[in-house]
Specification:
Oligomer: heterodimer
Number of domains of chain B: 4
Order of helices and strands of chain A: EEHEEHEHHHH
Helix content of chain A: 25-40%
Bound molecules: FE2/S2 (inorganic) cluster
CATH architecture of the largest domain in chain A: Roll
Number of strands of chain B: 28
Radius of gyration of chain A: 15 Å
Number of domains of chain A: 2
Shape of chain B: globular
Largest sheet of chain B: 7 strands, mixed
Number of strands of chain A: 5
Structural class of chain B: alpha+beta
Strand order of the largest sheet of chain B: 11-12-9-19-16-17-18
Helix content of chain B: 25-40%
Number of helices of chain B: 17
CATH topology of the largest domain in chain B: Aldehyde Oxidoreductase, domain 4
CATH class of the largest domain in chain B: Alpha Beta
């Protein structure tokens, strides 16, 4: 099995895996980062969302071979940034999660949205968040929490 | 070390600390009797249903036996105990209990609060009485002179105070009060009825490992399973050479079908999930479709239509007065409503981890029904129930699917075959194609309106498979039908009208089907709410009346129902003008005592796409426990019902489900979710269900709104493409 160097949440890992292994399963099974969730495996639900070089991607659609050498951040790394903490606080304040299973993907999508658009409108939220499925339909609260996180931003998001 | 065993360790820690703690266990909730448990919880031969401790440091620990799937029960149940205990809420902790027969578990049907409210109150009040007795004994004063403040017993006359923690050890030596202890007057509630942050939310926002799929047991293999796509089929042959060649694949196991539980399967066991999935995809399997190889939902639907006018065929019947044809000056309204099979598709794919050892079977399952898993595993694998322990994880959605036991039985089969722990992870495709489905069927609705527009005769005939007979084989009437009326709950469609109608007859013609069917959020109410209330809107229009006033008039004796209908109508601005092209619809549903009224505002685009802009919901579930959770559940129920109304449909061709994933079993997303306004009725009536009741009224209110906007009647769900050619839709 070939081995790859992955940088996840700032830490370098050397991982042996087949080249076609999806990043999702490498994170969950090889690095024990279980925050990133499996929902569909075909790029349709965004439960597996991570940031790769700062952009939002679905980890079920990236192989380890593609991901190697890039900066990956997962939901476990969210508290490392001021924006991430602000989003998590807003999520708690709005009591967003129900079952909670989709929320790691929602949080990562929200972080990408607020990085690109610190004060999103409702239609920005529709555009930025509609790849993510929530079977519990927590959408109204996700919307409120994003507005809250935006309003709580001191200035520019870091 | 397994992360999910953390809760087990916490539980043991609680048990170990009880020397100086007040530790109380309560027997079955139906006959609540308390016992002080010195040293260990659940001593041999005693099976408490609820467990509660007060530690010397004041920490109150409540063991929860209910499954948390987003409905907030993890927080709501302890709130009820803490209320009567007069606990300081900030000191309350909740821990999970393993299911080993010591506690009764099971979560479904929106029953938790309904059935547990009074027993949980009595449990809290019993502990409080013992703390008060301890303080009275210490101070040498009558207990009746002592009062409590959150976490503190107070003797005002002598200005003495003692915290619950200080009193815990002494309280444990007090006799358990005989008989019922007095409960608070609900007007004095300070925890129950106040929105309280849910205790599981911080862990969910930090993505801590808490779901079944996050369980890690040392030495475990991961299994991925090829499942016979045809209901009732079997394995003809399998070539597993390529699967075995995949790096990390350890074993290939053939498994027979288990009736009413699992199809014929071939499982690939590997070191990790991806290897297992690759191995499964590399199998070359040939299935024998068996007797259902030509079954299709389209043909079944045609069959239902063939039976619906067959007046001699009815299985279950309920009636009042005599139904009749329209007389002179009267109007007959008649329509057939149709509904499809539906999958649950909870966000967390089905999964389960099992470890079969010589000393017993340990299971980690995201389950709504850990007790059923324990009982069925014990039966099927011929071990004593005492040898089976089920650790219930948090559930990434349940919706009824996780009250089944198939996924756990399979994990046990595979751990047994492998001789080591096995975690089975289902793909989304397996979830969609090999599930248990909300039943399909049709209902013929008929009403006779008198000259004044009042309904004087009502008929509802449902045709389709019987959930009752499938789920409870012992209740099969011998012809594949159910017998109805289980404990007042209905599993099969066609319920008596919820309005004051002098003559009615509702019945169901049962048509057996090879498709596995099961409970789906709101069960038969999802069919009945839709058929009854959508059809009622047709009656309203035929009578030339207002949908709100018409319902109010037919609910003359039911003040609570009228109040919730008025609440929704007022908040929605019923009757106020809407933008051009928008429509407004109304529906009301009494869900086992939870009263729900919904106003839906929607428009239909030129492309036939439905856009729901606003939903206003009046909701009366009696005494509220955690109001914000109720609001969240109603929001979620509306999103759930919207997905089903717009898109939800499982079709079967040649015995196999045609849909596969969220690509073709679509659900609503952020950009389709309406603004939802939930208005709760505050009262102190007995609490009723919350998680499911928001579902049934939504579809009919939406269809009424579409009719209001376009003049088109939709009588078949999902709406799908039916409005695409708007001229073709029938009035
Ligand atoms: S699991 Fe990756 S998009 Fe659904
Ligand atoms: S919170 Fe349950 S799927 Fe989103």
């Amino acid at each position: 099995m070939p081995s790859y160097v992955l940088t996840v949440n700032g830490t370098r890992h050397t991982v042996s895996a087949d080249a076609d292994s999806p990043l999702l399963w490498v994170l969950r099974d090889k690095l024990d980062l279980t925050g990133t969730k499996f929902g569909c495996g075909v790029g349709a639900c965004a439960a597996c969302s991570v940031h790769i070089d700062g952009d939002l991607h679905r980890s079920c659609q990236w192989t380890i071979a593609d991901a190697a050498g890039h900066e990956i951040s997962t939901v476990e790394g969210l508290p490392n940034t001021e924006l991430g903490r602000r989003i998590q606080q807003a999520w708690i304040a709005e009591q967003v999660p129900q079952c909670g299973y989709c929320q790691p993907g929602q949080l990562m999508a929200a972080a990408a949205l607020l990085t690109a658009t610190p004060h999103p409108t409702d239609s920005d939220i529709d555009d930025g968040m509609s790849d993510n499925i929530c079977r519990c339909a927590t959408y109204p609260r996700i919307r409120k929490a994003i507005h809250r996180a935006a309003a709580n931003g001191a200035g520019e998001a870091k | 070390m397994s992360k999910q065993t953390i809760s087990r360790r916490q539980f043991v820690a609680v048990a170990g600390a009880t020397g100086a703690a007040l530790a109380l266990g309560f027997d079955t909730l139906e006959a609540l009797t308390a016992k002080v448990a010195p040293g260990r919880p659940a001593p041999g031969g005693w099976t408490p249903n609820l467990w509660l401790t007060v530690e010397p440091d004041g920490t109150v620990t409540i063991v929860s036996a209910k499954s948390e799937m987003g409905q907030g029960v993890w927080t709501a149940m302890p709130m009820i105990v803490a209320e009567e205990l007069d606990a300081d809420w900030s000191t309350v902790r909740v821990v999970r209990t393993p299911t080993n027969g010591k506690y009764r578990t099971g979560t479904g049907g929106s029953t938790s609060t309904r059935t547990s409210f009074t027993p949980l109150r009595q449990a809290g009040a019993t502990a409080r009485a013992m703390l008060v007795a301890a303080a009275a004994a210490r101070w040498g004063v009558p207990a009746a002179q002592c009062t409590t403040e959150p976490g503190v017993v107070v003797h005002a006359a002598s200005n003495r105070r003692a915290t619950y923690g200080e009193l815990a050890a002494l309280a444990a030596q007090q006799p358990v009060p005989a008989g019922e202890v007095p409960l608070k007057d609900p007007s004095r509630f300070r925890i129950v009825g106040r929105s309280t942050p849910r205790l599981d939310i911080p862990d969910k926002v930090h993505a801590r490992p808490m779901f079944g799929i996050d369980v890690r047991v040392p030495n475990m293999l991961v299994a991925s399973v090829a499942r016979c796509p045809v209901f009732g089929g079997s394995l003809r042959s399998v070539d597993d050479a390529k699967a075995r060649a995949v790096t990390g694949v350890r074993q290939v196991v053939k498994l027979d079908a288990i009736e009413r539980s699992l199809p014929a399967r071939v499982a690939v066991l590997a070191d990790d999930t991806w290897a297992a999935m690759k191995g499964r995809d590399a199998l070359v399997v040939s299935w024998d479709p068996g007797p259902s190889g030509s079954y299709s939902t389209a043909a079944a639907n045609a069959g239902y239509h063939g039976r619906v006018n067959d007046d001699g065929a009815a299985g279950l019947t309920a009636s009042q007065g005599t139904v009749r044809a329209a007389g002179a000056g009267e109007t007959l309204v008649e329509a057939i409503y149709e509904y499809p099979l539906l999958a649950h598709a909870p966000m967390e794919p089905m999964n389960c981890t099992a470890d079969v050892r010589t000393d017993g079977i340990e299971i980690w399952a995201p389950s709504q029904s850990p007790d059923s898993i324990r009982t069925e595993v014990a039966q099927r694998f011929r071990v004593s129930p005492d040898a089976v322990t089920v650790h219930c994880t948090f559930l990434g959605g349940g919706f009824g699917r996780r009250s089944q036991t198939d996924f756990a039985i399979e994990a046990v089969e595979l751990s047994k075959a492998a001789g080591r722990p096995v975690q089975v992870i289902w793909s989304r495709e397996e979830d969609i194609r090999n599930g248990f489905y909300r039943v399909d069927g049709i209902q013929r609705m008929r009403a006779v309106l008198d000259a004044g527009g009042r309904i004087v005769s009502w008929e509802d005939r449902a045709v389709g498979p019987s959930l009752e007979a499938y789920a409870f084989p012992q209740r099969d009437n011998g012809e594949g039908g159910g017998r109805g009326g289980m404990g007042g709950r209905h599993f099969d469609a066609a319920r008596p009208p919820q309005y004051d109608i002098p003559n009615y007859r509702v019945d169901m013609v049962f048509v057996p089907s090879p498709v596995p069917i099961w409970f789906w959020r709101s069960v038969a109410n999802s069919q009945d709410g839709y058929c009854n209330e959508a059809f009622l809107d047709e009656c309203v229009r035929a009578a030339g009346k207002d949908p709100v006033q018409y319902r109010l008039d037919m609910l003359g004796g039911n003040r609570r129902a009228q109040a919730v209908i008025r609440l929704a109508a007022d908040k929605a601005g019923w009757g106020s003008p809407l933008p051009k092209g928008h429509g407004r619809g109304f529906a009301y549903y009494d869900y086992d005592g939870t009263l729900v009224a919904q106003v839906v505002e929607a428009q239909v685009g030129a492309d036939g796409k439905v856009k729901v802009s606003r939903v206003v919901c009046g909701f009366d579930c009696g005494q509220l426990v955690n109001p914000d959770t109720v609001v969240a559940q109603v929001e979620g129920a509306i999103g759930w019902a919207l997905s089903a109304a717009l898109y939800g449909e499982i079709t079967v061709v040649n015995g196999a489900v045609q849909q596969s994933n969220f690509t073709d079993y679509k659900v609503v997303r952020m950009n389709e979710m309406p603004k939802v306004e939930v208005h709760l009725v505050e009262n102190h009536e007995a609490p009723t269900g919350v998680g499911e009741p928001g579902v049934p009224a939504f579809a009919p209110a939406l269809l009424a709104a579409i009719h209001d906007a376009t003049g088109k009647r939709i009588r078949r769900l999902p709406i799908g493409e039916q409005l695409k050619d708007r001229a073709a839709a029938s009035e």
